[in-house]
UniProtKB/TrEMBL annotation:
Localization of this protein: Bacterial microcompartment
Species, as recorded: Paenibacillus chondroitinus
Main localization category: other
Coiled coil ranges: none
Listed Pfam families: BMC
UniProt keyword list: Bacterial microcompartment
CDD domains named in the record: BMC_PduU-EutS
Listed Gene3D superfamilies: 3.30.70.1710
InterPro entries for the chain: BMC_CP, BMC_dom, CcmK-like_sf, EutS/PduU/CutR
UniProt protein name: BMC domain-containing protein
Highest taxon of source: Bacteria
Residues covered by the BMC circularly permuted domain: 7-105
Amino acid sequence: MEEHKQRVIQEYVPGKQLTLAHVIANPDPVLYTKLGIEQRSAIGILTLTPTETAIIAADIATKAADVGIGYLDRFTGSLVLTGEVAAVEMAIAAVNVFLLEKLKFSTAPITRS
C-alpha cells in the first residue's frame, strides 16, 4: 500500500499590533551607556509589527512630545524614546491612540518601571 505524505506550508503573517509600550522612569545610567544613547530622565520602549511601523511611531512620538529617538530599527520594529518621564509617557500614549484609531492596530497598555 502506498503511503501519502501530507505537506504543510507555514507562513509568518505579522499582525497589526503594538506589543510593548514601556517607560523606564529614572533608569540606571549604565543603560544609556550600553544603549549608546544620550542620558535623559526616562526611556520609552516600543515593539511593533509590521516592523516598518516603528518609523510611523517615531514620527508620531516626536511630534506629540519633546522626546528624542534613542534607537529605531525598521527590521525588528523596535523604537526607543528618551526624554522627561511625562513627555515619554505622552509620546507613547499618542502612538497608541494613532495606531488604534487611524491604522486599526491592537495596542498595548503603557507599563512603567
